[in-house]
Amino acid sequence: MKKIDKKFKIDRWEFCSQNPLIIAELGTSHNGDINKAKLMIEAAAAAGADCVKFQIVYADEILHPNTGLVPLPGGNIRLYDKFKALETPLDFWAEVKTYTESKGLLFLCTPFGLKSAAILKALNPQMVKIASPELNYTSLLEEIADWGLPVLLSTGVSTLGNIEKAVEILESNTQLCLLHCVTSYPAPETDYNLRILPNLAGIFGVQVGVSDHSNDPELVPALAVSMGAAVIEKHFCLSRDDPGLDDPIALPPPAFSQMVKAIRKAAKSSAEETITHYNTEKGAELVERILGNGIKKLAASERANYRLTNRSIHALRDIAIGEVLSKNDYGVLRTEKVLRPGLEPCLEKILEGKAARNFIPAGEGIRFEDI
Q1: What is the model's pLDDT at position 4?
Q2: DSSP 23
Q3: Taking CA atoms, which of 32, 69, 178, 259 is between 20 and 30 Å from 295?
Q4: Other C-beta atoms within 10 Å of 247: how many?
């Protein structure tokens, strides 16, 4: 693979493990309220974030209405209905971006499909974030690759083979940073296996970072920097009692500020100094378990989610035996551990014109045996 670019560059900013990019993931916690979004941006800036990240949500490009109840940190909810309520127009995002940049922060956003990608592209972003469940969404990756922007790619609930396929699409046209991630909410600190970071950097020749879903504000972020992380992302909230989807596992401002200080200290220290500090503060056994063995494999807390939170091809309506499929009959969606998974998204383009061999209920994955 190509030689690692020592810095992750975004316009006038340059980030590496000696100057990590710290991202406050605001997600959808604004609940469509522009004033709440601005308050969160202000609080994230005051807490020391370099960047705030949002999610552009359109329900129909993420999951099927028949997904029903989805288990989330705040309890079981009808996620499709929640996403519908969170859909916001382009002018909302334009105001959010302008306000973010007025506070000296980088604006970052995650699209979940081609519609939200078009909204994001219209905003002229400086970089893009792709979430773990979309790592295998071929059409979305191809679209983003054509923009030629720096890309942060989360790698939760994925194998080396899955990551390799995504990198092959993205790396030729973009500056890429892989964010090691554990797709569990909250994720145990001991599942992070942070010694994977230099290994991922060496295998793929790109910069690396961590998207952290653990509860502790310091352990994973600071130790990740000691392992070479150039980017740290953590969910941010005004209060864990707020009604946002991710607020129960996010850091409120004081804890986020604590994390920022720990990251900056680790960036100025050697790996040995950082590890020794946390050995003393938290215990050497715990630190060693967090650092792990560096072998890339599914973490214990996310293993049951494999192929059940990623994208696959699903029927958008009931499809009868013998019906010939058109491109409006199926979509690349998440199963959310409720619906059965279907074919890999890379096969999306070959389905049109195929006849159904079985009855395929609306929302369920389309399998090889179904066509």
Answers
A1: 55
A2: E
A3: 259
A4: 21
Distance in angstroms between the alpha carbons of the first and the last residue of the chain: 38
pTM, to two decimals: 0.95
Sign of CA dihedral 38, 40, 41, 43: positive
pLDDT at 226: 98
Angstrom distance (rounded) from CA 26 to CA 214: 16
Q: How many CA atoms lie within 13 A of 195 on its CB side?
A: 11
Asked if 110 contacts 55 with a C-beta cutoff of 8 angstroms, the reply is yes
CATH of region 308-370, choose from 3.90.1170.50, 3.90.1210.10, 3.40.50.300, 3.90.920.10: 3.90.1210.10
Angle ∠(342,347,351) on CA atoms, nearest 5: 85
Q: Is 283 exposed, middle or buried (0-12, 13-18, 19+ CB in 10 A)?
A: exposed
Task: Please state, in angstroms and rounded to a whole number, the distance separating the CA atoms of residues 152 and 308.
Answer: 22
The rounded distance, in Å, linking the Cα atoms of 63 and 30 is 21
User: What is the predicted pLDDT for the residue at 13?
Assistant: 82
Question: For the chain, what are the domain ranges?
Answer: 8-303, 308-370
Class (C level, CATH) for 8-303: alpha beta
Which pLDDT value is given to residue 326?
A: 96
Q: How far apart are CA 35 and CA 348, in angstroms?
A: 40
C-alpha–C-alpha distance, residues 244 and 75, integer Å: 12
pLDDT at site 268: 97
CB-CB neighbours of 349 under 10 Å: 10
pLDDT for the residue numbered 68? 83
C-beta of residue 128 within 8 angstroms of C-beta of residue 144: yes
Q: What is the mean pLDDT of each run of 10 residues along the chain (371 residues)?
A: 62 88 97 97 98 97 90 82 94 98 97 98 97 97 96 96 96 90 94 98 96 97 98 98 93 98 98 98 98 94 85 97 97 89 95 97 97 94
**Which residues, 6 or more positions from 33, have their beta carbon under 8 angstroms from its beta carbon?**
none
Specify whether the backbone of 100 is left (phi greater than 0), alpha (psi in -120 to 50) or beta: alpha
